[in-house]
Amino acid sequence: MQDALRGLESAQRVEQERALQAVRAVLPAAAAELEAARGWCERVLDAESPCWASVCGVFRLGQLVLEQQFGRGAAVEDDALAKRQWQSLMERGALLYMEHTEARVRQAAMAALAAVVRCDGDDQVLRRALPLLLSSVERNLPRKVSNGSAEGEGDASSGVRSATESADTGWHALETSLNGAAECVVALSAAGVVRLAPDLERLFAGEALQHCRRHPNRFVREADLRLVESVLRALTQLPDDAAARRTVTHVADSSLAIIAAGLADNWSQVRYMASKAARALYQVQRQSGAQHGDRIDRVLVPRMCLNRHYVAEGVRQYSQENWVHIFGHSGRELLAVHIRDVMEYFEAESEADNHAVREAACQSIAEVFTKLDAPIVAPYVSRMLRVLMECFRDDSWPVRDCACTACASMVRQFGVGDLEAAQVDALYELWFAHCADNIPSVRQHAAEAVVSVAVALGEAHVQRVLSYLGPALRRALQQSSDAYYSESDATPFDAQRKLARDNDPHLHTGQTMYSCGSLAPKMRPARLRVGCMNCAFSRPPEPWEETDGALMVWGQLVGHGYAQRCVADGSWACVVRELALLAGFAQVTSMLTTLWTQVALAVPHLPLNALQEHQEALVAALRRARRCGHARTESAATDAARALRARLGVL
């Protein structure tokens, strides 16, 4: 034991872990060894200026002893006097060091305090500690808290700043105090929850938790929600009586604003914790039979619905599970009941500063209009279509991508009868422009969207797409040549030439560098832009990109039964005799990959005479593409050859 105690004084984490492992091996220990360990803990805690590592070791040792020597379910329950001595020591030390400048000490102190409560589930310890923890929270709140939602994001405390150094922000012990209170509440027994219910109710009567939801530091907001969630889960253990229902109603009303703010937070960790708190709120609300469920639904249902499409996978999956767990098969009916609140919230979130939120808003709008009955959503079609068209011009390409698909879904379902001609023209301009976007998936989705809309709306709209198709297909013929790809080159598809260009320092030195997410703070919704540019980060499309998108449109038209029209207007001949032979620029292989992918999909639908007419040129181009040296192009050409063999028996 003495060697282990020396190891607990080490500032190195690995040494403390080894020491704790040694202690764990001898627990349950003899009374003499426990007394020696407790004496060491008292000497460290009572020292004038103890090393932070030693204090941290004391709390970690105390937590281990309380859980394995004296805790409920421990192998051996020792005498009551020793148990009370350890509990008293850890309680006194935790409250003494809960605002220590070192974060690891504060965290260990709160874990030890929770172990004291967990040891027998008694509420007396928490009854004494809770006012001190709340006092710590209030002392460490910012001196000035914004009335709006927190937008600025600060870093968590490093653990070495003094209270005077953080006077302007003052959150150095705020997170650990909130987390400590949450751990203690979780550790309560059912009887302890019943006795402590009035204290928990008073906790929500103050302003501290409401201030924390607006705190600029996201760790504090997360800890605030963790405390809310732990209290709500604890209240599920209350008996079914009038007093319990009053407590639940008061806590639910007070926590609603905190949870709602967390569900709309910019940080995914805060959203995730808010989602857990929302589940706890519904659970305690329904279990107690308390009233005001409709008011909770009005606030939380729109936010929970949107988070089912949030970009962070953990938030998205948990929100989807939450939806089923809480609402079962009544989710659609609930959305229909609160459709006005849902639409207003989606519209507001489509203008959020966070581009991931705007993306989720577009997906949510599309889902609601697809899954709810038409009479319910019809009054909101024009309004939501305007919202989506604003998102269609967003700086962020995932937002534009979602808006593109969502607009098509709404137009297919409700038509354009209620739209002005200028709005219809604007929609087609946006779809055609995104068929030339620099993001391949955006081009693909735009092509699918515009063709599906045209097919659904009828001949006039199909003709509109065909009128776009002819010139757009031929744009790649105007692509300027690249120095690495001369027209006279005998092997224009040589992979080594592309590799040389990609690594040419003259093309890349001194250019703007981008990393994952680096553009996110600069990406603005369309409403905040000035001037006539559609997108602050856009560039004029390359001719080959226009052709690439047009090839996708052509493939969609052929697949929807317009193969004869695509042959009659010369599009098929252009694809085979002109575009398939292109070379001389760096991105030609990308365009040819798209070309042969679309040909493979189109061959089963094209008239047999059209294939036979261009058979010789088609076979020659395919053989050339299958030996080009680029894996994706060769694979696409092989698929096209396989489809052609099935129709004509060649290759």
TrEMBL record:
Any Pfam family: HEAT
UniProt biased composition (Low complexity): 146-159
Ranges where the record places region Disordered: 144-164
Gene3D superfamilies, per database record: Leucine-rich Repeat Variant
Keyword Repeat recorded: yes
Keyword Repeat: yes
Keywords on record: Repeat
Annotated InterPro entries: ARM-like, ARM-type_fold, HEAT
Name the UniProt record assigns to this protein: Uncharacterized protein
Organism whose genome encodes this protein: Cyanidium caldarium
